[in-house]
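Bit of a strange request maybe. I'm writing a small parser for structure token strings and I need a real example to test against, not something I typed by hand. Could someone generate the tokens for this chain?
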Amino acid sequence: MTPPDLIATTDAAPPEAASDERDPAASPPPDVTPEVPLLTEPADGTPPVVMNPDALGQTTAALAAGTGPVAVDAERAHGFRYSQRAYLIQLRRAGSGTHLVDPIAFGTPADLSSLGAPIADAEWVIHAASQDLACLYEVGLVPRTLFDTELAARLLGYPRVALGTMIEEFFGVRLLKEHSASDWSSRPLPPEWLTYAALDVELLVELRDKLAAELVETGKDEWARQEFAALVAGAGVPPEPRTDPWRRTSGIHRVRSRRGLGCVAELWYARDAIAQSTDRAPGKVLPDLAISELAAAKVPDRTALRQIAAFSRRQAKRYETTWLNALDTVAALPESSLPPLHVPHDGPPQARLWPSRDPEAAARLTAVREALSAVAAELDLPVENLLTPEHVRRLAWRPPAPVTAETVDAALAASGARRWQRELTVPLITPLLAASPQPDQARDATSS
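Reply from user aminoacidic:
Good idea to test on real output. This should exercise your parser:
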């Protein structure tokens, strides 16, 4: 495909600026890197936004008449809204062109399943699919097969896998990403944002074709198929809810008492309820650090609250009564009802604590990590894509009993490891998990 309209980011020097001793047509000096052209407009121009049933029907018909894979992207308002819903959906298919669909115009939540019906059997091409599948699923857009260009690039060992980087790598043009963190819930969407959104899918199918060819050439295409199938299978599965999510509040390390932790929890849940009801990002209602600072105060009360600048900002001040009620609730709790300073963890502890708690487990972890790193380097693959680090830690901390290839394989399968990962790693790590560390190994692990 011929790249769309290009524009250089720097103007050419006027003829009179060139040196008399240098041929103006000559190549630049070796230490000067030519500016990469900037992709500024889609080949067919920026399409109008689909915002009514008639336009949606036309888009659906156009996609049905197209051929080949469908490039799909979604823009959310992360950092601005509580929900992770899609505020713009981009689709592009050969013979169909690019389409920008505003799901907000079709209800809350929107039902765009009719749009997905004619492309259900096509391969959907998405960059970083794990970020967009949930919001696409929410509006009824669910792929049966997909190709994740970011994940493919990781499997191929590319060190930088952002979409802009990959487009520049393969097509020699740049995508501006200045609107990636914009508030896409804003209406109306500015024309330059729409152009940006259309360009995100402009070369996505072409990128897919180049990466797919490399996957075949390197023998990694089956790995990719299994990874993509796992993404499709998990598209509508909600994440496991966190236990005590408030414990991840920034600055909580400054809170040293159980009553202080109770304040963090109560303020966190109060803020979350406000954020959810107003569809605002929690940090836009009240920053984490304000919660931690108030909870860490010697006496967390009205006086302490009003000394913290964040509570005086307009959005937070509107809910001052809510914050004070939360503090009063915690103040009235008996000691037995306050959260513990530390909670038991259902998984292994942090790896840095292993040498003192279980030197043999620390030695196992070191041996398994070194073996996996060596294989990953041979395969030109990030080690975390060879086997998820959490799977490795759980296995090394408490291996299955007895340790056999079958039990290790079953443990990894239960954790979600794909077949290709297990085929490569089970024969490698099983003997390392089964081996009893020698005294010098355990001593080395303890001193590390």
